[in-house]
Design brief:
By secondary structure, the protein is an alpha/beta fold. It contains eleven helices and 24 strands. α2 crosses α11.
Amino acid sequence: MTLPDVLHPLRPAIAVAESYGASFGRRVEGENRHHAILPRSDLFHGAVPGDAIQFSRVLVPAGDITFMTDHHSTSRPRKVEPDPPFPDPPPTVVVTALDQEGRGVARVDGKAMFVEGALIGERVAVDVLRRKPNYELARMSELLAASPARTTPPCPYFGVCGGCSLQHLEPVAQVAVKQRVLEDALWHIGRVRADELLAPIHGITWGYRHRARLSVRDVPKKGGVLVGFREKKSTYVADMAACLVLPPRISALLPELRALIGSLSIHDRVPQIELAVGESANGGAVDVLVLRNLAPLSAADERELSGFAERHGVDLYLQPQGPASVRPLTPPARRLCYALPDFGVTLDFEPTDFTQVNASLNRVLVRRAIALLQPAPGDRVADFFCGLGNFTLPIARRGATVVGVEGSRTMIGRAEANAERNGLGERTRFIIADLFAATRDGLDSLGPLDKALLDPPREGAIALVKALPEERLRRIVYVSCNPATLARDAAVLVHERGYTLSAAGVANMFPHTAHVESIALFVRE
């Protein structure tokens, strides 16, 4: 399968970083170190022959120069000093790829140069920030030839806030780039190619974040408390009054939250606010804000918080210590859940439980995963890294018997409760296990398996794929949030375990960021 026809005009510019596209860290040392890193070899711009000196852009013979006021002057010859040298023009490069942080990638003297702010196909002038033996870090100083996919970022904080890195690239082109990131990772890391490229999954591009962790900091020099995402490559909190990727009603609360925290007696002891959005019984939204409070609240603080929650229709939780300490400010709190209508299931969760950031895209992702896995009555299926049952329950709804495996006892308890609540307790079983230390003997205790679904964190599932049973297991669906570890694990499944990479594609779970969510199908005849 090729990229969608709608992307055809963009194809000449669509490419991504190859094996050199790995992250080199989030800190760029210093600001513009151009003159320190690239000192001129002599006092003059360019190479000047040894028998000439550059004066006001005119080359004349070296040596003493005599200027006479008139023909009969007897004044002594004087030496004329040259004008100050012209500054070196910034280097110019052509960007051929994007790396996994959304930076442009160019090749300079055989080395990779990572350029902040540049897009594929663009010719840009750059300021070099850091030079290393095998790569350079730079930022765009001038756009000389723009990509046709470049657009004006609608967010006034883009470039300062670290939440988004690709707002200057058209959303359709973002999806195409991410598809290519996946393809390149599979080939350059795993030496595998998919028999079929799945159509990318994408949806709304603004207001999609149903989960977020906002930083909070009291900064008197900026007028008080700041609430928002951190600045790009910094621990500072961006000074922002809105956020376009948050639901509009939450974005509008940012100035109110700044004032709220600033009014508390512990305004300098609230480092973060966590957002979780769920669904209510009537289909509306339930907005939850979890305040991480490092000191006890006063009675006046509690009154301020209660008034805020009532005025804005949000549920406030406090977290004085670890995740287990989270509690509603004024219990009982409303039920927090989300639905998967295609499978007739609803999953309850707590504010700090892991759920997908993009709820609408999660529905489509689950639908595709089930279509690829093809569970049927009589099948025995394993859902590894099952969490609270996001894939387990839809698999069971198709009639298969499912065992969900997860390392968190809390999440296993949540999954069991969700299965019972949806009438799927008899078709599901849940087991606590450390899948990062999976062994063949451990997996054999699950019993014979026909199919499996894997949804690991960024670290991937290398131990698990090496330990998967040989017999009966013919179909594996792998949902990944990191193309590099998916590619590494795919190499094991294909080259060592005898599977074929039948299909792969991306889901644009995080529009305007370089994050790549993907799904792959492995089959063995």
